[in-house]
Amino acid sequence: MNAADTLTYLDHAATTPMRAEAVEAMLPFLTDRFANPSGSHRFARSVRQAVDEARDVVADVVGCSPGEVVFTGCGTESDNAAIVGTQRRHGGVGVCSAAEHHAVLHAVEHGGGRVVNVDAAGRVDLAALAEALDDDVSVVSVMTVNNEVGSINPIPDVAAIVREHAPRALLHTDAVQAPCWIDLRSISRHVDLLALSAHKFGGPKGVGVLFERQGTVLEPLLQGGGQERDRRSGTHNVAGIVAMAEALRLADIERADETIRLTALRDRLVDTLMAELPDVIETVPRLLKIAGSAHVCIADVESEALLYLLDEAGVCASAASACASGAMEPSHVLAAMGVEKRYSLGALRMSLGRTTTDGDVDNAITVLVGAVRRLRGVTS
Amino acid sequence: MKVMVAMSGGVDSSVAAALLVEQGHEVVGVTMRLWGGESDTGCCSVSDVDDARRVAQQLGIDHLVFNFTEDFNEHVVNPYVLAHTQGITPNPCIECNRHVKFARLSERAALLGFDAVATGHHARVTADTDGDFELERGADRNKDQSYVVHMIDQAELSRTMFPVGGMTKPQVRTHAARLGLRTATKPDSQDVCFITSTGGRSTFLGTRIPFRRATMVDTEGVEVGEVPAVEMVTLGQRRGLGLAGGGPKQFVVDIDVEHAVVTIGDESHLRTSEQTVRNMSWVRSAAHGASFGEVLVQCSAHGMPQRASVSVDADGTTANVSWLEPQRRIAPGQSMVFYDPSDRFVLGGGICA
To answer: Relative to the CA of B242, which of A135, A190, A346, B299 has its CA 20 to 30 Å away?
Structure first.
């Protein structure tokens, strides 16, 4: 199936297509330049150089020094390495917001941690956060951008509270949804740990980053050959790392222009839907969220049924996370935000990205308006 | 036609889907996620969903998973648990068919533009000359499942398909093997999906309701022992009462849940010539106020049907069954299904009072 020809792809928060430049960058390392960068011969050294250069690029975009960049296998691994790694090394408990991705939420809960309420926009409740902090807390995790509803947490404010109420705790942020929309340099300087995932910004699946501030000591999740300065054992995914760096570099360059372009598309998408369809709410006010996120709740419609009709018409969107069987789970994020069930049952996440066009938005509007009217029994 | 086929991951629904594809229908497979808790096949029966998806891929049809866990809890699991606190023994598979498969799923299918819903049940839908629909036993009498789908009415029958209903089970398996379906040799599922074989009913209920010890008395009222949980006792039960052997077989002949007293006695105390059936549903709507001189009544999934006459109240919801020969009393909550005298067609059914 050729996605570009047949589909209206509005699921960039799930994954966004790889950039051609990133594909180009990785190909040599899948073919001729296959050496293991940890080797001791010249062939290995040349590949090692590519990994080092990729690390420089990532460090530049994240806003840290290259030695603070650890390459991992995915965003989930980075989150787990941060939370589980802190607890294993320093003991204590974790604290996170109730709207975190499961990679954080389950890791914190598994370690007996504390979960802090969020406000109606899905942002951590700062007063409740302060309340939850004490000297037993070793790691606090608050996401930069929420993967479901797109809201942005005030990381500088979060950092101030953590430094005041739990001065010994490490502050981690899951920034997996951020790179295309937020300058990571403005985030990294407030935190000790920050997780990224390549496939969310035009890189390949199966590679991620954990920024570990200089001086931070974690217990590594994997025991082995001691790669990444003993912080992440396992042979480097060289092709993935090189492609990720190229994708991140380009996302950083294009961020400002893309944000303007996609804000206009997103606004038109949501404004038109709300004008055409009664009883649709925009889940999070636009000022509080990223440009690429169009999240709405449609009363008297069930997400599963709606997604079927969208899918049938070639529109790819999502509702919430799926369980192992593939069934949609009720959203823990919307529940934490206190969205009324009548609306949360009809949750719809459309996420825009680099390949989204005017035509995609036109098509999505037509299909979605028709589908909702049909499910509501309205003859249009 | 555009057909939604419910695929459980078993061989019957796999072949049902395959037959529909062979017949040229536009087919979409759906697996319902019903139970979110522990089960024999793992969290949300992921391995069964995998089987269904792989079969769908092999057949070249779309496959979706619908999350109906809330409906299943509301209409099947919670009433099942509640019933046990009232001395009632329900059949959860029948309630699932009534409230989920042939209601929730079927409504969603209609909403999404499907002409029919198909399942892998061994039963048949046939149209008579007037255009009315009959619900007929499956061709394989040993595997017939008309009992568990007896509640489907005319409107629902008009859009229900049972593609394997005309086949024997060996024919189904042969067909699956011929197509190379991965489910061809998968064993039949036997038990209630939300109850594990290791924990059983007592573990399931024991974590949800408080068990109360009950005094066991004979029919003269003399105490003869006790049982650890009155909620676990079923009318007609013979095993698991901790009674000494010898003498005539002893059965549970009465359960007083409120006072936690279980009465046991020999089979003669279970015999009855009458039985009241409530919550009747009818394949045809014309049964209100009717009397049937002779019908066959089946009281369990594979039970032997017995002859009876039946009178129905004016609104069609309650039926009084008069057995031609006295039968053991049926436990309250069990479904009783009426068949025509030829033992082919379902007339209707309800729940034993």
So the answer is: B299
Q: Parallel, antiparallel, or unpaired: how do β-strands A93-97 and A137-141 relate?
A: parallel
Model confidence at B289: pLDDT above 50 = yes
- In this prediction the pTM is 0.91
Statement: residue A352 has pLDDT above 60: yes
Pick from A76, A172, A89: nearest CA to A124:
A172
Tokens for A14?
């799930």
DSSP string, A226-257: -TTTTTS-S---HHHHHHHHHHHHHHHHHHHH
Helix/strand/coil for B30: strand
Q: Is the pLDDT of residue B222 over 50?
A: yes
Mean pLDDT, rounded, for B171-190: 92
Q: Which amino acid is at B164?
A: V
Residue B288's Cα: distance from chain center in Å?
24
Burial zone of A108 (CB within 10 Å; 0-12 exposed, 13-18 middle, 19+ buried): buried
Domains annotated on chain B, with CATH: 2-179 (3.40.50.620), 210-269 (2.30.30.280), 271-352 (2.40.30.10)
Mutate which: A106, A316, A325, vs B, most B CBs within 10 A: A325
CB A181 within 8 A of CB A252: no
Question: Positive or negative CA dihedral for B190, B283, B6, B105?
Answer: negative
Question: Of B33, B108, B112, which is closest to A325 when you measure between CB atoms?
Answer: B33
Which chain A residues are Cβ-neighbours of B66 within 8 angstroms? Answer: 304, 327
Min Cα distance B209 → chain A (Å) is: 26
What gap in Å lies between CA A204 and CA A19, rounded to an integer? 9
Looking at the DSSP assignment, which residues form a beta bridge with residue B47?
none
The helix (H) or strand (E) run that includes residue B320 is strand B319-328
Strand, coil or helix: B166: coil
What domains are there in chain A, each with its CATH number? 3-16+255-375 (3.90.1150.10), 20-250 (3.40.640.10)
Q: Give A325→chain B minimum CA distance, Å.
A: 5
Task: Count Cβ neighbours within 10 Å for each residue of B290-328 and write b for 16 or more, e otherwise.
Answer: eebeebbbbbeeeeeebebebebeeebebbbbebeeebb
User: What percent of chain B stands above pLDDT 70?
Assistant: 97
Only one residue has tokens 């690429």, namely: A292
Query: Which residues touch A233 (CB under 8 Å, ≥6 apart)?
Result: A220, A222, A223, A224, A225, A226, A227
Q: How far is Cα B328 from Cα B276, in angstroms, rounded to an integer? A: 13
Three-state secondary-structure class, residue A180? coil
d(CA A142, CA A159): 10
CA A91 vs CA A88, A230, B246: distances in Å: 6, 20, 64
Question: A265: alpha, beta or left, given left = phi > 0 and alpha = psi -120 to 50?
Answer: alpha
In chain A, whose CA is at the least distance from the CA of B68? Answer: A327
Q: What residues are paired with A298 via a beta bridge? A: A280
Best CA proximity match to B15, nearest among B143, B160, B179, B126: B179
